[in-house]
Every structure is written in C-alpha cells, then in structure tokens.
C-alpha cells in the first residue's frame, strides 16, 4: 500500500517537478498539497501556474490546496516533501517534525546543522542514522532529512567514487542552468547572449555541503571530510542541467583510466529512482552536454567526461539535471531511502 | 602619411573585423585585400558575406580581391594583417616575410616558435626585439609577429599585473562565445540551450601561450615563465566576449585588495588602440558579464571582478571581447607597436 | 510479424529521428541503413554523429551502413523510409520504386507531381489511391508516397478541420525552429539574439502543398483546393517546434467557438502514431508555445490556441514538433497507413 | 542654450535609455530625475540598477532622484520626458501639464484620447496642432504629446510611405524582443528555446494607434485612417529589435518596385535624431534581421526588406530598435519637434 505524502510549496517550480515525479510513483500517493495563504482553498489547477512540460494530472488539478501548516494536513499523511524558500522552510519545517511527520526537504535551511542528515542515498545513506541523534536532541516524533543544493549534487557523486584515492584539493567551476534560480529567478534580459559569474551563496554551498556529504558518521557525530574545496559559480543561458569543470588532487596517484573505472563501477542503490549506472562516463571529449545528457537515467544519472591529467591532478567535467537529480528527484529518492529504512 | 596595409583572409570573420577597425584608422590605409582563389578577381562586396554590425565601407566594397600571394599585393604595401586558418597561414606567411612584408598575424601557426615574438603590447612589448633574432636566423627582410589566441589574451593581462607577487599556479575555466569559432564554427543545434565542455586544442593554447607571453627575453633567447597553468574550456551560447574564472596561487601573499590595485594601476600604452585603463576592475560581484562589458574601451579593455580569497589563493573572473581585443584588435595593436618601434 | 524496413539517409538529422521512432516500433523492424558512399561499410555507430537526446540503440549502432542503392539493400526489405536532400532523393528514389520497394519519403522532390500522393493520414488518407494511377503511369512494382514539409504539416490539419466552412483566404506567418534546417543548416552566429525573415523555397511549399493536401481525388485526378494561401516564413532561436500565426477567411460565418469545436472534434485515426486528440485546443491565450507544447501526443499532436475574430476572419496560432510530426513521424505514420491499406 | 529637461521614471529600462540619449544631446540638459517614493532622496547611482551597455555618466550618477511630483521638479525645467507604467502615467502626467510642463510621453495611457497628439514626427508632425485643441479643452499651460507603442512605430512609417496607393487592409505578425516588456517583463524560463504567441493588449495597440497616426487632422478634429488592421503578436528570444511581417492591400496597384521606391524616398526630417534615410530598404531577401540591423541610423532608422507580391497584395518585413526608435528615441524626437515648433 502506498505511503500517503504531502508536498509543501506545491505550486513552485520544484513543487511542480515533485508532483510530476510523485504522481506516477507506485510507493507514494499524493494526499496533501500546501502553498501560501493566498492559494489556500483553491484547487491546485487554479493556484498553480503550471510550467512543467507534461499536463497537470487530472486528480491533482482538482485537489484543494491548503496552507502550509501541520494542522491543515490530514493525519494519515506520513511523509512530507518540502521545497520552500529557505526562510519559510526554517519557520515551518520544525513544526511538521514536532507534529510527527517525516520531512524530506530540498530547502536550504538547516542543511549544515550537526544533527540533520544531508543525504545523497548512493553516497552516504549511513548518515541517515543521524536521525537518532536528532530525535534525542529535539524530542521529535517526526524527522528532518535534507538533500543538498543542485550544484553540490552534480559533482559529489564523482568525488565519492574517488575517495579511495584520498581527496585533497578540489577546484570546481560551474555552468548552471536558469531553472536553478526558480521560475522568476533570472530575467531574459539578464541572460540572453550573456553569462553571470556569480550566484549568491552558491559557492559556499558547494564548499561546505560537499565536505559534510563525504564526511564520516561515527554513530554519535558527523566528521566532515578534510578535503579543501573552492568553487566559482556561473549562470549561463541553458534551461536545465548544471555542467561543472572539476580539478581534483589526491593523495594517491590517480590516472584518468583509474578514475573512469572508479566512476563507472560506483554502485547505484536498489531504490526505484536510483539509476544504474549511477555515473555515466563518456569517452567523447565534448560530453557531457546539458541538452544532450541531462535526461540520462530519467534525469537521475550523473554524467562525466573529458577525464585528463593536468599539472594539478585529474581534470574532468560532470553534469546532472538540476531540477530532477538536483532537487525534486533528490527529495523523492531520500523518501524512498526513508521507506527502505523503516522510517515510514 | 598613413602606412599602406593589406589584409590576408579579408572575407573571414576576423578579416571583416580587421576592415571595420582599419578603415577609420588614421595611421593605416587599406590597400590590398586577399582571399581564396575562388574570390580573387571579384569586388570585396561580391566576395564577402558581410556579417559585421556596420555596413561595408563604400570604397572597401568596390576594391578587387586578389589571391593570397605576395606577387598579387602591390609593392607599396608595407604591413600585412593576417587572419588565416593556421594551415594556410603556415604555408603563405613565410612567403610574405621573405618578400619583405612586415606581417602582424592572428593565425595560430608558429605562435610558439622560438624566434617568433608573441606579443600583447601592454604585457611584453620588449619581446618585439626577438625580430632581430628572427631576421638573423631566417634571412628575411620582412618580419612575423603574432598575437595570442583570444582566450589567452583574456586572462594574461590580469596575470601580468600580478607577476610581482610571484605567479606559481593558475587554474582557469573559460566560458567562450561562439564567434571565437568563426562564422560557421558552431551550429545553432549544438549550442542553443546547451554548453560544450571542449574546444579542440584550446586548453593547450592557454597553457603554453601564457607562459611564453610572461617569459623573459634576455636579448638572445626567450625564457618561458615558470608558473604552471591548467585550463578547462567551454563553449556557451553567447555571441561575443570570453568570460574566464581564474584561481592564481602566488609566492607572496596576495589579498584581493592588493590584486585589484595592481590590476587597476597596470599601465596601458600610448598607442591608439590601447585603452586607459587597460584593466577595469568591478566592485560588483556579478560583473564582468559578456553582453554588458565586452565593449569597454571600444572592445579593447580587459574587465575583471569578483576578487576573493580561497583555500587556493586568489580567485577572480575576467572578460575580453574575443574578436576585437582577442583577434582583430590585437593584430591592429601589434601593427601600431611595429610602427612606433620603427619597423615601418 | 514486423515489416522489414530500410532507412535512406540514416545518418542525417531526420534519419536519426526515424531510427529513434522505428527502433521500438512493433510493426516495423530496421533491416537496412544507407548513407553516402563515404559512410558505406562502416558501422552506424562510426558513421553517424548521433545527436538525438536518447542513446543509439545497441543493435542499430552495430549495423553496417550501405550505399544508397537498391542493390545494396536486402531483398526482404519491403518498406523504405527516405529522408534525403531533395536533389539526391530525386535521383535515387525512382530506382527503389522500380526495384519494387514501397517508399515513404520526407524528401521534398516530387511532392507536387500529379501522380504522387502527398499525404497526412488524418487529413487525406484517400489520396493514397493515387498510387494506382502512379503504378499505371510509371510501371512500378513499388510506390512513392510523400509527406509534406514540416511547416505545411503544422497548419494544414487545423485548416482541414475548418473545410466545412468553405476555406477562401489564408495568411500564415511562421516562427520556425532551427532543427528544420538540418543539423548544420543554421549557424549559431546567424540566430542567437536574432531572427531571419526568410527560408529559401519555404513559403512556396506552404502555399502549394496545402492546396494539394486539401484537394479532392476523383479516382483519376487530384483537384487542388481553391483557397488562396500566402505565407511569410521566419527562423527563430528555438530548437524544435514550429509556431504559426494563421488568419483564415471562410465562405460561411466562423466563430472562434465553432472553430475550436471543429478542431477539437476533428478525428484522429486508428494508427499507432496518430494521437488522440489530433488537435489540442488551448483556452489560455498565450499557448501553444514551442518548448511547452511540442511533445503533446509524443510529438505527433497539433496544438492550437488564441482563436479570435478579426476584421479578416478567424485568427489563431498553431504548433507542431517539426522533426517528429513534421518529418520523421510523418513518414512513419504514412508507413503505418500503407500497411493498413495492404500495400505491404 | 539647452532646454532643461526632466525624466519621469528615470530608473526604469526606458528611463535609462532616455538618459543615455539625452546626456550627450546638445539641445537638452538633464535637470531632474524622478522615480518612485522609495528611490527619492538617493543619488541616481544608488537608485538605479543600471543595465544599459555604456556606463552611467558621472554627473548623472551623482544627481539626487526626487519623487514623481511637479512640486519636486525645479521650476526652470521646461520639458518632461515620461516613461511610466500606464497606470502611474495616467495619474501623474496631467498634474505636470497643469503645472505648465510640456510632457513628451512614452507611457501608453491617453494615447488614443481625442485631444492628445500621438506623433511620429516623420509621419504626422502636423498632428502636433492638436495641442491647441487640448489646451482649449483642458485649460493647461503645459501640454501632453505621446509617441506610439514600440511595435506600432516599427510598421507605421512603411505604411505612411504607401498611403498614396490607398491603404485598405493590413495584416501584421510581430516577432518582438524581450526588452519591449521591460527589464523584468519576461523570465528566462519563459523564453529560452521558446516563443510566446501573445502579448497582452499589444495587438489592439497596433490596430488602433496605426489608424490614428495615419489619420487626418482638419484643424479641429482628428479623423482616423479608414484602413483595417489585424495584428498577431509574438515574443521571441531576442534582446532588442522588433521584426514584423506585413501584408498590405491597396486601392491602386502596388508593385514591390514601386513600394521600395516609395519607402526609400520617404523623407526624414531636419531634426537631430531623425535619420536619413528614414527607411532603409534591403535587396537581400533575408534582411532585415534584429541583431544585424537594429542599430541602423543610431537605432532610429526603420529597415524593410523582402518585398514581394502575393495573392493578397504586397508582403514585406520591417524592423526597428524597440527601445530606441520604439521608445526612448521616439520621445526625444518628439521633444525635438516640440522645440522646433516653438513649444519650448
């Protein structure tokens, strides 16, 4: 029997992607949609300016949107997917956890909190055990799990595949799609025939989230990975798909061949949304490319290519679909992991 | 009295920009236009598919195009601007030099030859003296001077401003405009809603040309700069303007403030096409941007911004107009330097 | 048992789409792939620069490409899909027909020939009977069927739905995607931040093909529709999906409501690739839009919207996916019609 | 001595263009800049998010912005340029006129009012005499003159050149740049790889404003032109430059040659911003194009091309720079006309 789920911030860009992924999902059943006060009481059809490239599923369009409040969500909902602006997430997510809901959140608030697991299932599923610490400390019946930022998710799986070589230094330059900023985040006059070498707070997210994701949980505490990371982030005129240039220096020798093998053999999980292979490595030097490769593995795969030696270690490029693997799909996958691990 | 000049490859994309810059230039007078055999004998108007955003100057349109052969160029022409595919350049440029012409070339052939000066006037004007070595060795009456690749020109002036701090390691990621590949170089289906993380031979150009440009000429030999450079090159959907993310590690401490001051105070030259300031440093973290800033200094300035400290030294972004400062304008400026130094 | 089919021009842009559609098709089995002499003898993987957004099917990648010659195609192939440059099509298609193959062709040659059926199955399936005339006249065992140009296919189904009102005058302005020109047809420098108000021969195709498609076949001869059509064609920076603005003046009164009902109730066919509904009519005035709506009905539906009264009759907009419904899918659908009608 | 002028809505997209055009203008001197209450009291540098591709002039950057109120504008200002949202324009412009200011406005409010001249100087300068009627009726010391909408300005001059042939029916399809919607008007996710066949109220503006512009003022009343116009408007991914496809049916025979001659010989005016020729007619069938031709005549020329006969009269394409000729430059030109006619 499917787990009944709710979507917080259901009318937003990631909220729409969540609905697109959850509606046909056999393990989940959408039972609640929340949005801002002004949308509450309207049907989803009325409340949402639907922009995803498949029509609104009929039953979803007719559901009534509620306010984003635990009291307005039916009691038989067990799992909450949250994709809210971080300030709103910080305000309302704890209330849902106190009220007993398991929350799989894409919002950026609390990602770096010591007792909040930040999880990419294929990378650090064991961090989920932090929830015991979280419940002890916060006295929650529910729980709060986060997925990382879209640009972080793009390169961390490739680094995870290389940890055995001893990660030391990572430089990363990003070429990010406009959808990462939300529907209204980048105006057309800002970006057509242009690029913007700055995305507020983004560089910090890549640098800190990556070290937490690749850290070790000893049962009581999470110790961050000791590698040093420096990111430079750019917005470019693509719709979907973040492309990243990575240099990684490792303790042990690392050839492009060994790196390709480590990436290609890096295991996926036996979860519905985890693609196999997780990392697709291209031989062609001009791949991956956003428009060509963002839908690999239904948008859940990581693509890598251009592996080469440089004076500063290995250089390669990687790519992921930022609103699927990097946001909505990341939350859904964490939901599947929570189900697998008995939290639901 | 104006120096009479010829343009080799006058119908190509850079050739058109050369004409646009040379036609109003008070020190130069266009006296010869060459192109492939099939264009020879036609008027320029007939031969060129003009694509620059100002009309063909009338007198130029009526000039007759000749083959790219020293015998077809009038004897009273002194200076040749060359923008040919490198294989053609390698074949025909030596013949012009032997025939006594001074050649300022944008073609990539011979850029790394030991006796060919590769020059950005504001950076290494003194390398021009290599021409004495060149004439001795080759027995030419003429001479061959090269300007670097467009993506090299974009970041080298900013590094030149920092040499006093002792350059050690440079990582650079580029976001390059489609015009850098020539008019037919990138199809629309390749690049709309996309990015390509590979440009053939480009990374090598940034890595080797930069070390030559910042090297020292001791009167007999050119010693390359000892810094190590690694480049990762990307094509993005912009028309003009290469944007680059740079990390530089130096021997001495280098704060963003000191770097900004060094860049802003880096001298321009008293040549007509050299902008003042040479390097424009933005305080706004989201600048420079291609569409907004590529025309600074009539397309001849370098823009920089986003200076910040990282675990790996200084990080910043820089930008230049790739077909003006990075190609046609670079050749014209070298022509002005040759004139200033008595070669014409 | 599946019909064995061959694809002429299999490495081209439409050829690749044909393979993408045919490979999973239960009624057809790809048994031959042809291309130019230089590709013959290589595997398809080697010969094609694959650019479709799903990987090359494994078995297809390993097939050996042959020259485009009936002698090189296995005898047990019954149906040929052709997508060749029109000059090549004009040269080789008749040979295949003589050799007994049924050819469903997207190439523009012979579309207006009096004995060649030009068919959109949902619009004029009865024109297929022209093949009897064709075989009589040409003495072929095989047969040649054409689908119209992509921009013609976009608006003709909507006109077909309105024929009962008496079509008199049609003005149509097109906003066409770059893929319609083939992979190398439009350079990025031509179209980024630009539009081109001209596509060679395109206007004529809309004007003449539409009148043939909506004409009447009396068993012996095809009488063209008497409406007058004037087209103005533009290329814009979209990847896929032709959008068209149409004004239609009719003999009888035609309200937007009546037109919408006629379009929505216009029947699809019981063929695998014919979508139901054929024409999707939007209420939202700002639809259809290329990126949002081109994949309706797996890229085989026609989208319409913005229906309104004007001083010059009905005005509306329509859209179709130009490389699926407008090219590869159109040929496949004609193949299905040929199968249904006993030609295979 | 220069006329002192004020700019209402100086921080907006058109306001910035107005400053760019007025600052170097020898006949006008910027003496007042107004914006919303929240900007008042700040320097222009602080208040404006400057987005034009030339730096803010120094003196302008240091001016203090005031509220948009006649009491806050110095008394020695004579001419007001207004580019406000129409609801704001409707509210504040009459107050400026009452207070004695001459207002040249780009805002869409009151354009169709019977006593408000809607003027393109080269087309209907004589309509300026409507100001006598306006002053009589409204008792203003000041006066209100409007320029039309950007998409109207693009095609009306070409129609004006053809009036002698007797304009009867006009169909026009527009391909409009994103800057026409203001800086935040079109998001990148709406328009990259897309087109939108709808711009709110735009079609009505082309249809009604064109008939007023080409109407006749008999000294007392303005009689609209009797032609019928139907417009279909589209937004496409270009930054600047509206391209339009026009069909025009005339009473008298009109060949493409006669039309081209009428357009090319249509007179410009002896005003500083009026280009000569006003209309540039291209022979090349693929011109005009937005990126190539929008800066003709410093952005003030109209470009036309593709003239051909159709079953429905003459078909051609035209283009103008929407934020220069279509907005800021249009207002400045009306200011020059007001000066020439003794209103200042």
TrEMBL record, chains A, B, C, D:
Q: Which UniProt keywords apply?
A: NADP, Oxidoreductase
Q: Which Pfam families match?
A: Semialdhyde_dh (PF01118), Semialdhyde_dhC (PF02774)
Using the record's annotation, list all stretches that form the Semialdehyde dehydrogenase NAD-binding domain: 4-131
Q: Which SUPFAM superfamilies match?
A: Glyceraldehyde-3-phosphate dehydrogenase-like, C-terminal domain (SSF55347), NAD(P)-binding Rossmann-fold domains (SSF51735)
**Which superkingdom?**
Archaea
Keyword Oxidoreductase tagged: yes
- Annotated active site: 150 (acyl-thioester intermediate), 242 (proton acceptor)
Q: Which InterPro entries match?
A: ASADH-related, Asp_semi-ald_DH_pep-lack, NAD(P)-bd_dom_sf, Semialdehyde_DH_NAD-bd, Semialdhyde_DH_dimer_dom
A GO MF annotation of the entry reads: NAD binding
A GO BP entry is: threonine biosynthetic process
UniProt family annotation: Belongs to the aspartate-semialdehyde dehydrogenase family.
Q: Supply the PANTHER family for this chain.
A: ASPARTATE-SEMIALDEHYDE DEHYDROGENASE
Q: What is this protein called?
A: Aspartate-semialdehyde dehydrogenase
The protein's organism comes out as Natronolimnobius baerhuensis
């Amino acid at each position: 029997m499917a787990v009944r789920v709710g979507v917080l911030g259901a009318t937003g860009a990631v909220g729409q992607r969540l609905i697109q992924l959850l509606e046909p999902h056999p393990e989940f059943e959408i039972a609640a949609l929340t949005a801002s006060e002004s949308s509450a009481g309207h049907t989803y059809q009325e409340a949402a300016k639907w922009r995803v490239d498949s029509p609104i599923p009929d039953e979803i369009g007719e559901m009534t949107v509620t306010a984003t409040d635990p009291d307005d969500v039916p009691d038989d909902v067990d799992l909450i997917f949250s994709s809210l602006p971080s300030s709103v997430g910080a305000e309302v997510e704890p209330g849902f956890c106190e009220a007993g809901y398991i929350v799989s959140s894409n919002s950026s608030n609390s990602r770096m909190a010591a007792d909040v697991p930040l999880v990419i299932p294929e990378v650090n599923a064991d961090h989920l055990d932090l929830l015991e610490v979280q419940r002890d400390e916060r006295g929650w019946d529910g729980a709060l799990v986060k997925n990382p930022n879209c640009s972080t998710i793009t390169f961390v799986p490739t680094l995870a595949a290389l940890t055995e070589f001893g990660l030391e230094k990572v430089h990363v330059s990003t070429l990010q799609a406009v959808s990462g900023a939300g529907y209204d985040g980048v105006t057309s006059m800002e970006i057509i025939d242009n690029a913007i070498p700055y995305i507020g707070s983004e560089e910090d997210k890549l640098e800190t989230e990556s070290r937490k994701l690749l850290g070790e949980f000893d049962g009581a505490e999470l110790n961050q990975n000791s590698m040093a990371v420096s990111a430079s982030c750019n917005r470019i005129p693509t719709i979907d798909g973040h492309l990243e240039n990575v240099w990684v220096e490792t303790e042990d020798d690392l050839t492009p061949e060994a790196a390709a093998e480590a990436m290609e053999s890096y295991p996926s999980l036996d979860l519905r949304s985890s693609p196999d292979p997780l990392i697709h490595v291209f031989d062609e030097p001009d791949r991956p490319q956003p428009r060509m490769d963002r839908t690999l593995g239904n948008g859940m795969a990581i693509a890598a290519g251009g592996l080469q030696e440089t004076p500063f270690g290995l250089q390669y490029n990687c790519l992921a679909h930022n609103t699927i693997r990097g946001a909505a799909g990341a939350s859904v996958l964490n939901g599947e992991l929570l189900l697998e691990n008995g939290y639901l």
